[in-house]
Amino acid sequence: MISHRHLSILELVPIAPSSISIHQLQQKLLERGFDIPTRMLQRDLHSLFEQGCFGLEKDTRSKPYGWSINAQWRGGNAKVMSSEMAEHYLLLEQLLPQSVPSDVKQSVHIKAEQALKRFNGHVPDWLATLPKPSLKVNIDAQLVAQIEHAIKHKRAVSAELYRVLYDEAHWLKFAELSFYNLVEQGGVLMVQFMVGQLHDKCYQMPVYRIRNVQVLQKTRRGPTAEQLKSLRSAINKGMKQSAIELIVKVPSHSAVNQGFIELGELIDKQHIDDKNVLLTYQTIDTEQLTDELLKCAHWLEVIKPEKLRQRIISKLKAATTNYL
Predict the structure, then answer these.
(1) Can you say whether residue 122 is alpha, beta or left, with left for phi > 0 and alpha for psi between -120 and 50 degrees?
(2) What is the number of domains present in the chain?
(3) Which of 42, 68, 90, 268 would give a disulfide with 280, using CB separation of 3.0 to 4.6 Å?
(4) How far apart are CA 227 and CA 222, in angstroms?
(5) Which CATH number is 63's domain given?
(6) Is 166 in the same domain as 101?
(7) Judgement on whether residues 223 and 195 belong to the same structural domain of the protein
(8) Domain with 286 in it
(9) HSE (CB half, 13 Å, CA atoms) of 103?
(10) What is the pTM (predicted TM-score) of this model?
Protein backbone atom coordinates (compact mmCIF):
# COMPACT_ATOMS: atom_id res chain seq x y z
CA MET A 1 0.00 0.00 0.00
CA ILE A 2 1.41 3.39 -0.98
CA SER A 3 2.02 5.64 2.05
CA HIS A 4 1.44 9.35 2.54
CA ARG A 5 5.20 9.83 2.31
CA HIS A 6 5.33 8.09 -1.06
CA LEU A 7 2.41 10.16 -2.34
CA SER A 8 4.21 13.34 -1.32
CA ILE A 9 7.33 12.20 -3.16
CA LEU A 10 5.38 11.50 -6.34
CA GLU A 11 3.48 14.78 -6.14
CA LEU A 12 6.73 16.74 -5.90
CA VAL A 13 8.37 15.01 -8.86
CA PRO A 14 7.80 17.27 -11.90
CA ILE A 15 6.41 16.24 -15.26
CA ALA A 16 8.98 15.57 -18.00
CA PRO A 17 10.94 17.22 -19.56
CA SER A 18 11.51 18.93 -16.20
CA SER A 19 13.28 16.86 -13.56
CA ILE A 20 14.39 17.02 -9.95
CA SER A 21 17.46 15.71 -8.13
CA ILE A 22 17.31 13.77 -4.88
CA HIS A 23 18.80 16.72 -2.98
CA GLN A 24 16.19 19.13 -4.40
CA LEU A 25 13.42 16.66 -3.63
CA GLN A 26 14.76 16.24 -0.11
CA GLN A 27 14.49 19.99 0.49
CA LYS A 28 10.92 20.16 -0.83
CA LEU A 29 9.91 17.22 1.36
CA LEU A 30 11.44 18.95 4.37
CA GLU A 31 9.18 21.93 3.67
CA ARG A 32 6.24 19.54 3.89
CA GLY A 33 7.42 18.17 7.21
CA PHE A 34 9.15 15.03 5.93
CA ASP A 35 12.74 14.83 7.18
CA ILE A 36 13.89 11.87 5.08
CA PRO A 37 17.54 10.69 5.05
CA THR A 38 19.16 10.57 1.61
CA ARG A 39 19.50 6.78 1.60
CA MET A 40 15.84 6.29 2.54
CA LEU A 41 14.72 8.69 -0.19
CA GLN A 42 16.88 6.84 -2.72
CA ARG A 43 15.29 3.54 -1.67
CA ASP A 44 11.80 5.05 -1.91
CA LEU A 45 12.41 6.39 -5.41
CA HIS A 46 13.93 3.15 -6.65
CA SER A 47 11.07 1.15 -5.13
CA LEU A 48 8.46 3.34 -6.83
CA PHE A 49 10.44 3.20 -10.06
CA GLU A 50 10.67 -0.61 -9.99
CA GLN A 51 6.92 -0.96 -9.45
CA GLY A 52 6.47 0.61 -12.87
CA CYS A 53 2.97 1.95 -12.24
CA PHE A 54 3.55 5.59 -11.32
CA GLY A 55 5.07 6.91 -14.53
CA LEU A 56 8.30 7.59 -12.66
CA GLU A 57 11.38 7.99 -14.87
CA LYS A 58 15.09 8.24 -14.03
CA ASP A 59 17.59 10.18 -16.14
CA THR A 60 20.94 8.42 -15.73
CA ARG A 61 22.82 10.42 -18.36
CA SER A 62 24.54 12.51 -15.69
CA LYS A 63 24.86 12.70 -11.93
CA PRO A 64 23.02 13.56 -9.80
CA TYR A 65 20.23 11.59 -11.49
CA GLY A 66 17.14 13.54 -12.48
CA TRP A 67 13.69 12.21 -11.63
CA SER A 68 10.47 13.01 -13.50
CA ILE A 69 6.95 11.76 -14.25
CA ASN A 70 6.25 10.70 -17.82
CA ALA A 71 4.05 13.40 -19.40
CA GLN A 72 1.81 10.80 -21.06
CA TRP A 73 1.16 9.10 -17.75
CA ARG A 74 0.09 12.19 -15.84
CA GLY A 75 -1.27 15.05 -17.88
CA GLY A 76 -1.38 18.66 -16.74
CA ASN A 77 -0.81 19.30 -13.05
CA ALA A 78 -2.90 16.38 -11.83
CA LYS A 79 -1.89 14.87 -8.53
CA VAL A 80 -0.86 11.25 -8.27
CA MET A 81 -3.86 9.07 -7.55
CA SER A 82 -3.65 6.95 -4.41
CA SER A 83 -4.45 3.25 -4.66
CA GLU A 84 -7.55 3.75 -2.50
CA MET A 85 -8.85 6.51 -4.76
CA ALA A 86 -8.05 4.44 -7.85
CA GLU A 87 -10.09 1.53 -6.47
CA HIS A 88 -12.99 3.88 -5.79
CA TYR A 89 -13.02 5.17 -9.37
CA LEU A 90 -12.84 1.67 -10.85
CA LEU A 91 -15.71 0.56 -8.62
CA LEU A 92 -17.73 3.67 -9.44
CA GLU A 93 -17.32 3.03 -13.17
CA GLN A 94 -18.75 -0.48 -12.78
CA LEU A 95 -21.70 0.64 -10.66
CA LEU A 96 -22.73 3.72 -12.67
CA PRO A 97 -26.51 3.70 -13.15
CA GLN A 98 -27.82 4.07 -16.68
CA SER A 99 -29.66 7.28 -15.85
CA VAL A 100 -26.46 9.24 -15.13
CA PRO A 101 -25.90 12.13 -17.60
CA SER A 102 -23.41 11.40 -20.37
CA ASP A 103 -20.98 14.14 -19.29
CA VAL A 104 -20.78 12.62 -15.81
CA LYS A 105 -20.19 9.17 -17.30
CA GLN A 106 -17.40 10.54 -19.48
CA SER A 107 -15.74 12.17 -16.48
CA VAL A 108 -15.88 8.93 -14.49
CA HIS A 109 -14.54 6.91 -17.44
CA ILE A 110 -11.56 9.28 -17.74
CA LYS A 111 -10.79 8.93 -14.03
CA ALA A 112 -11.22 5.15 -14.23
CA GLU A 113 -8.75 5.02 -17.11
CA GLN A 114 -6.22 6.92 -14.99
CA ALA A 115 -7.00 4.58 -12.10
CA LEU A 116 -6.27 1.55 -14.26
CA LYS A 117 -2.86 3.02 -15.07
CA ARG A 118 -2.29 3.37 -11.33
CA PHE A 119 -2.52 -0.44 -11.14
CA ASN A 120 -0.41 -0.89 -14.26
CA GLY A 121 -3.41 -2.14 -16.22
CA HIS A 122 -4.38 -4.85 -13.73
CA VAL A 123 -7.73 -4.61 -11.93
CA PRO A 124 -7.46 -5.50 -8.20
CA ASP A 125 -8.54 -9.08 -7.41
CA TRP A 126 -11.50 -8.11 -5.22
CA LEU A 127 -12.81 -5.78 -7.93
CA ALA A 128 -12.47 -8.44 -10.60
CA THR A 129 -14.90 -10.65 -8.63
CA LEU A 130 -17.72 -8.11 -8.90
CA PRO A 131 -20.59 -9.58 -10.92
CA LYS A 132 -20.94 -7.90 -14.29
CA PRO A 133 -24.38 -6.99 -15.64
CA SER A 134 -25.79 -9.94 -17.56
CA LEU A 135 -27.24 -7.64 -20.20
CA LYS A 136 -25.68 -4.53 -21.64
CA VAL A 137 -28.50 -2.28 -22.79
CA ASN A 138 -27.69 0.66 -25.02
CA ILE A 139 -30.33 3.31 -24.39
CA ASP A 140 -30.89 5.95 -27.03
CA ALA A 141 -30.07 9.28 -25.38
CA GLN A 142 -32.46 11.06 -27.73
CA LEU A 143 -35.26 8.71 -26.68
CA VAL A 144 -34.62 9.45 -23.00
CA ALA A 145 -34.56 13.18 -23.77
CA GLN A 146 -37.94 12.92 -25.53
CA ILE A 147 -39.46 11.09 -22.57
CA GLU A 148 -38.02 13.62 -20.12
CA HIS A 149 -39.38 16.46 -22.27
CA ALA A 150 -42.85 14.90 -22.35
CA ILE A 151 -42.83 14.42 -18.58
CA LYS A 152 -41.54 17.92 -17.84
CA HIS A 153 -44.02 19.67 -20.13
CA LYS A 154 -46.89 17.30 -19.32
CA ARG A 155 -47.39 16.23 -22.92
CA ALA A 156 -48.97 13.05 -24.19
CA VAL A 157 -47.02 10.97 -26.71
CA SER A 158 -47.49 8.29 -29.30
CA ALA A 159 -44.98 5.43 -29.33
CA GLU A 160 -44.30 1.80 -30.11
CA LEU A 161 -43.95 -0.63 -27.21
CA TYR A 162 -42.26 -4.01 -27.31
CA ARG A 163 -44.81 -6.56 -26.11
CA VAL A 164 -44.93 -10.35 -26.02
CA LEU A 165 -48.26 -11.81 -27.11
CA TYR A 166 -48.84 -15.56 -27.21
CA ASP A 167 -45.10 -16.24 -26.99
CA GLU A 168 -44.35 -13.94 -29.92
CA ALA A 169 -42.70 -10.52 -29.64
CA HIS A 170 -44.18 -7.52 -31.42
CA TRP A 171 -43.70 -3.76 -31.62
CA LEU A 172 -47.19 -2.36 -31.04
CA LYS A 173 -48.23 1.18 -31.92
CA PHE A 174 -50.02 3.17 -29.20
CA ALA A 175 -51.71 6.38 -30.32
CA GLU A 176 -51.65 7.99 -26.89
CA LEU A 177 -49.50 7.36 -23.83
CA SER A 178 -48.96 9.50 -20.75
CA PHE A 179 -45.40 9.19 -19.43
CA TYR A 180 -45.29 10.62 -15.92
CA ASN A 181 -42.10 9.30 -14.29
CA LEU A 182 -38.65 7.82 -14.93
CA VAL A 183 -37.20 5.50 -12.28
CA GLU A 184 -34.29 3.12 -12.01
CA GLN A 185 -34.95 -0.40 -10.83
CA GLY A 186 -32.26 -3.04 -10.57
CA GLY A 187 -29.92 -0.93 -12.71
CA VAL A 188 -32.50 -0.60 -15.51
CA LEU A 189 -34.09 2.71 -16.48
CA MET A 190 -37.88 2.35 -16.38
CA VAL A 191 -40.68 4.65 -17.48
CA GLN A 192 -44.07 4.74 -15.74
CA PHE A 193 -47.09 5.60 -17.85
CA MET A 194 -50.81 5.38 -18.53
CA VAL A 195 -52.53 4.34 -21.76
CA GLY A 196 -55.13 6.38 -23.63
CA GLN A 197 -57.74 8.58 -21.95
CA LEU A 198 -60.00 6.03 -20.30
CA HIS A 199 -57.78 3.18 -19.11
CA ASP A 200 -57.16 3.59 -15.37
CA LYS A 201 -54.21 1.27 -14.87
CA CYS A 202 -50.60 2.48 -14.50
CA TYR A 203 -47.75 0.58 -16.11
CA GLN A 204 -43.97 0.37 -15.81
CA MET A 205 -41.67 -0.69 -18.65
CA PRO A 206 -37.93 -0.59 -19.44
CA VAL A 207 -37.04 2.37 -21.65
CA TYR A 208 -35.21 0.08 -24.07
CA ARG A 209 -38.59 -1.50 -24.93
CA ILE A 210 -39.91 1.79 -26.30
CA ARG A 211 -39.24 3.38 -29.68
CA ASN A 212 -40.53 5.97 -32.16
CA VAL A 213 -41.76 8.41 -29.52
CA GLN A 214 -43.64 11.40 -30.89
CA VAL A 215 -44.60 14.23 -28.53
CA LEU A 216 -48.21 15.30 -29.09
CA GLN A 217 -49.75 18.73 -28.70
CA LYS A 218 -51.98 17.33 -26.02
CA THR A 219 -51.83 17.42 -22.23
CA ARG A 220 -50.94 14.08 -20.68
CA ARG A 221 -52.88 12.39 -17.93
CA GLY A 222 -51.63 12.17 -14.37
CA PRO A 223 -52.17 9.23 -12.03
CA THR A 224 -54.16 9.51 -8.83
CA ALA A 225 -52.75 8.49 -5.47
CA GLU A 226 -54.80 5.30 -5.62
CA GLN A 227 -53.46 4.43 -9.07
CA LEU A 228 -49.88 4.97 -7.90
CA LYS A 229 -50.53 2.77 -4.89
CA SER A 230 -51.88 0.07 -7.19
CA LEU A 231 -48.75 0.22 -9.36
CA ARG A 232 -46.43 -0.01 -6.35
CA SER A 233 -48.42 -2.97 -5.09
CA ALA A 234 -48.12 -4.71 -8.46
CA ILE A 235 -44.36 -4.09 -8.59
CA ASN A 236 -43.87 -5.41 -5.06
CA LYS A 237 -46.02 -8.43 -5.79
CA GLY A 238 -43.97 -9.17 -8.89
CA MET A 239 -40.82 -9.01 -6.81
CA LYS A 240 -42.28 -11.53 -4.34
CA GLN A 241 -41.14 -9.63 -1.28
CA SER A 242 -40.79 -11.34 2.10
CA ALA A 243 -38.30 -10.86 4.92
CA ILE A 244 -35.69 -13.61 5.28
CA GLU A 245 -32.47 -14.35 7.13
CA LEU A 246 -29.91 -14.99 4.42
CA ILE A 247 -26.68 -16.87 5.18
CA VAL A 248 -24.01 -17.05 2.49
CA LYS A 249 -20.50 -18.44 2.29
CA VAL A 250 -18.07 -16.20 0.40
CA PRO A 251 -14.30 -15.81 -0.05
CA SER A 252 -12.69 -13.40 2.41
CA HIS A 253 -11.38 -11.23 -0.45
CA SER A 254 -14.74 -11.05 -2.23
CA ALA A 255 -16.62 -7.84 -2.93
CA VAL A 256 -19.47 -9.06 -0.71
CA ASN A 257 -17.21 -9.50 2.31
CA GLN A 258 -15.51 -6.18 1.59
CA GLY A 259 -18.91 -4.50 1.75
CA PHE A 260 -19.00 -3.34 -1.86
CA ILE A 261 -21.98 -5.56 -2.66
CA GLU A 262 -24.73 -5.40 -0.05
CA LEU A 263 -27.23 -8.25 0.07
CA GLY A 264 -29.19 -6.72 2.93
CA GLU A 265 -28.52 -5.64 6.51
CA LEU A 266 -25.43 -7.50 7.75
CA ILE A 267 -26.14 -8.89 11.23
CA ASP A 268 -23.38 -11.47 11.69
CA LYS A 269 -19.99 -12.48 10.29
CA GLN A 270 -18.11 -15.71 11.09
CA HIS A 271 -14.68 -16.65 9.78
CA ILE A 272 -14.72 -20.30 8.70
CA ASP A 273 -11.03 -20.45 7.80
CA ASP A 274 -8.34 -18.26 6.26
CA LYS A 275 -10.15 -18.13 2.93
CA ASN A 276 -13.90 -18.08 3.64
CA VAL A 277 -16.48 -16.35 5.82
CA LEU A 278 -20.14 -16.89 6.65
CA LEU A 279 -22.24 -13.73 6.37
CA THR A 280 -25.75 -13.42 7.78
CA TYR A 281 -28.12 -10.79 6.42
CA GLN A 282 -31.61 -9.59 7.22
CA THR A 283 -33.02 -8.95 3.77
CA ILE A 284 -36.00 -9.17 1.43
CA ASP A 285 -36.56 -12.21 -0.79
CA THR A 286 -37.01 -10.75 -4.26
CA GLU A 287 -36.37 -11.86 -7.81
CA GLN A 288 -33.60 -9.26 -7.91
CA LEU A 289 -31.88 -10.91 -4.94
CA THR A 290 -32.15 -14.31 -6.62
CA ASP A 291 -30.64 -12.92 -9.82
CA GLU A 292 -27.81 -11.27 -7.86
CA LEU A 293 -27.01 -14.50 -6.02
CA LEU A 294 -27.17 -16.47 -9.25
CA LYS A 295 -24.65 -14.14 -10.91
CA CYS A 296 -22.27 -14.74 -8.00
CA ALA A 297 -22.87 -18.50 -7.83
CA HIS A 298 -19.38 -19.37 -9.10
CA TRP A 299 -17.90 -18.01 -5.86
CA LEU A 300 -20.85 -17.48 -3.48
CA GLU A 301 -22.85 -20.29 -1.83
CA VAL A 302 -26.28 -19.78 -0.30
CA ILE A 303 -26.47 -21.74 2.97
CA LYS A 304 -29.88 -20.60 4.23
CA PRO A 305 -32.80 -20.32 3.77
CA GLU A 306 -33.16 -23.75 2.22
CA LYS A 307 -35.99 -22.61 -0.05
CA LEU A 308 -33.76 -19.96 -1.62
CA ARG A 309 -30.84 -22.38 -1.84
CA GLN A 310 -33.01 -24.89 -3.72
CA ARG A 311 -34.21 -22.12 -6.02
CA ILE A 312 -30.60 -21.31 -6.94
CA ILE A 313 -29.78 -25.01 -7.40
CA SER A 314 -32.81 -25.45 -9.65
CA LYS A 315 -31.78 -22.53 -11.86
CA LEU A 316 -28.18 -23.78 -12.04
CA LYS A 317 -29.38 -27.26 -13.03
CA ALA A 318 -31.58 -25.76 -15.74
CA ALA A 319 -28.62 -23.75 -17.04
CA THR A 320 -26.41 -26.86 -16.98
CA THR A 321 -29.01 -28.80 -18.96
CA ASN A 322 -28.99 -26.12 -21.64
CA TYR A 323 -25.23 -26.33 -22.07
CA LEU A 324 -24.64 -30.08 -21.79
Answers:
(1) beta
(2) 4
(3) 268
(4) 10
(5) 1.10.10.10
(6) no
(7) yes
(8) 243-323
(9) 0
(10) 0.37
Q: pLDDT, tens digit, for every residue of 123-174?
A: 666 665 555 443 344 567 889 899 999 999 999 999 998 876 654 667 888 9
Residue of 144, 62, 78 whose CA lies nearest to 105: 144
Q: Are residues 94 and 112 in the same domain?
A: yes
- The string of pLDDT tens digits covering residues 39-64 is 888 888 887 777 655 677 888 887 78
- Is residue 217 situated within a structural domain? yes
| Pair (30, 99) in one structural domain | no
Residue 175 lies in a domain: yes
- Same domain, residue pair 159 and 230: yes
Q: Pairing state of beta strands 276-284 and 243-251?
A: antiparallel
User: Looking at the domain assignment, is residue 152 inside a domain?
Assistant: yes
